[in-house]
Amino acid sequence: MVRIGIVGLPNAGKSTLFNALTRGAAQVASYPFTTIDPNVGVVPVPDERLDAIARITKPEKLTATTVEFVDIAGLVKGASRGEGLGNRFLGHIREVDAISHVVRCFEDPEVPHVSGRLDPVSDVETVELELILADLETVEKRREKTARMQKGGNKQYEEETALMDRLKGELERGRPARLVPMSCEERASVADLFLLTMKPVIYVANIGEDDPRDGAGRVRALAEWAAARADRAPVVVVSAKIESELLSLDRDEAMEYLRELGMEFSGLDRVVLAAYRALDLITFYTTKGQETRAWTLRRGSTAYEAAGKIHSDIQRGFIRAEVVRYDDLAAAGSFAEAREKGLLRLEGRDYVVQDGDIILFRFSEPSR
Fold it and tell me: How far apart are CA 132 and CA 144, in angstroms?
């Protein structure tokens, strides 16, 4: 399962956001390190296409694809040196696939800011610096190892040492590893380092209950800072407090409340989808028997790899995939009509699955 780590400075609203996302009960308080052991929750990915497919297939069971959010304790300046249990918390970040960085953009005299001054860009840079320093230590250790190994004249270690030197230099200049130009082979060679700043990131601007619009100066400053960077990481504006309050309302009441605040829909959906996109994930669908289901897949994956997501027996016995695009099925109105119009295609194991594909896998049953 895809794991998204929620990080940020203490009192930025991480646990409040986590509770709203997961309808959980993570402890929330206005002091640092409320969360020591990470809270974990599974969140369905919002998907209007799945609902539309269900109106055609009328299944007894409808299953959305999901992502896992991990609420990680607040990082402080000096975390890379162990300040504020930093080493422990940085270890939790190594275990996730992407980072959802909650940035405080709200004023609240009852919730003190750890530095005593509210500055979203400075807050982001503080956390990022600690991640960079932790990565720098990791790279230096690997560089020492490869330098020793290359004394035997092995070209592979010479190339790896050169890569470590390049990474080290960029990190020392304050550049996150994900922004360092590297070939696919080079990125694969450093994957086992689990560099913190190699992970995709989205910024969640946590605004106040009385400032639900995107035009606030603090949010604008954060968005401009993010847009100026090479990866142009998305900034999602959310009021974690408002989102928490919406949980106590039914759907119609919640939508009316959002309209009163000038918001079209919940910010939580945008957080989940932004995290999903940051990892370059796509969704494909299956409908068989009484269940219609959405599945997560890395963009560029094949039909054979998609079959393995469902069951190893389907992958081993793969014969072919019967595929219809979501838009084609929606226009046709039924599988029978789509088949009659020639919109269903037969694809082999090397077919690259596209976002929105609905797939029926044909496979040979394993012998018992």
Answer: 18
Interacting residues of 58 by C-beta distance below 8 A, sequence separation 6+: none
Give the integer Cα–Cα distance in Å for 268 and 278.
Answer: 15
CA distances from 14 to 39, 94, 270 (A): 11, 18, 16
Overall size of the chain counted in residues: 368
The CA-atom distances, in angstroms, between 234 and each of 53, 205, 207 are: 29, 10, 16
Q: Specify the CATH number for the domain of residue 333.
A: 3.10.20.30
Task: Confirm if 176 and 196 have CB atoms less than 8 A apart.
Answer: no
pLDDT classification of 84: cutoffs 50, 70, 90: very low
Q: What count of other Cβ atoms lies within 10 Å of the Cβ of residue 228?
A: 8
Residue 99 and residue 278: Cα distance in Å, rounded? 9
CA angle, 359 then 283 then 54, to 5°: 65
* Parent domain of 323: 300-363
| Pair 51, 165 in one domain | yes
* Rg from Cα positions in the chain: 23
pLDDT band at 75 (very low <50, low <70, confident <90, very high): low
Rounded to whole angstroms, how far apart are CA atoms 261 and 323?
Answer: 43
Question: Are 3 and 68 within 8 A, CB to CB?
Answer: yes
Answering whether pTM is above 0.90, one says no
